[in-house]
Amino acid sequence: MFTGIVQATCEVVAIHKKDGLNTLEVAFKPDLHEGLAIGASVANNGVCLTVTQVVDDRVFFDVVEETLRLTNLAGLSVGQHVNIERSLTFGSEIGGHILSGHIHTKAKVSHISHTAQHYDLTLSVEPKWMNYILYKGFVGVNGCSLTVGEVTDCSFMLHLIPETLKLTNLGQCQVGDEFNIEIDSQTQAIVDTVERVLAKRFNGLS
Q1: Does the residue 18 lie in any domain?
Q2: Residues spanned by the domain of 29
Q3: Total tally of structural domains belonging to the chain
């Protein structure tokens, strides 16, 4: 489990491509590397990956074909930075909201508004996911726990503060880039339950 509070951005120093999977080699900073063991779970751009090897400051992750298909990890290139968060430990402060590291969909950056006063992103997603992305609700974007701004039928806005831009890779995006999206599980459960109840009632009256 994760909190959506990105701890650092780390450089992808190599991508080892094999049949059915890619192995990411990521350079970890010393404070993130301490105590990290093989088998640990680490979020890379919000995707929960298992540590398969640790060599000095290099950490290796296998990314299987299905994960490559569903996330933006397939589009990574050497030299890019990924948002990193190590898994939640008992007694840790939860500053964001609980994330599983299981990505639901991808969103495309459709507009960037960057001025001296603000940095706003508009992300477009398939309309079906907007049932769970609500104004002032929470959403995981590349592993970052963020509050949703204005919404439409197929898009939502993010208002990013300087601290978020400093600690994550969201500020390096361009129009057309894709972000990994994890919707809030509680919101999904409530929306789906209400829809089922209303559907049963409607069917019972028809």
Answers
A1: yes
A2: 8-86
A3: 2
pLDDT in tens, the chain (206 residues): 899 999 999 999 999 998 889 999 999 988 888 889 999 999 999 999 999 999 989 999 999 999 999 999 999 999 999 999 999 775 566 666 789 999 999 999 999 999 988 999 999 999 999 999 999 999 999 999 999 999 999 999 999 999 999 999 999 999 999 999 999 888 878 888 887 887 777 776 65
Query: Residue 9 carries which side chain, given as an amino acid letter?
Result: T
CA angle 130, 135, 137 (to 5 degrees): 90
Count of CB atoms situated within 10 Å of the CB of 72: 20
61 close to 49: Cβ distance less than 8 angstroms: yes
Would 169 be classed as within a structural domain?
Answer: yes
CATH number of 72's domain: 2.40.30.20
Full-model pTM: 0.91
Give the distance, in angstroms, between the CA of residue 15 and the centroid of all CA atoms in the same chain.
Answer: 20
Task: Please report where in the chains the tokens 């400051």 appear, as a residue.
Answer: 57
Domain final position from 71, 86, 101: 86
Same domain, 12 and 80: yes
Matching residue, tokens 């009256």? 205
67's enclosing H/E stretch is helix 65-70
- How long a stretch of residues is the chain? 206
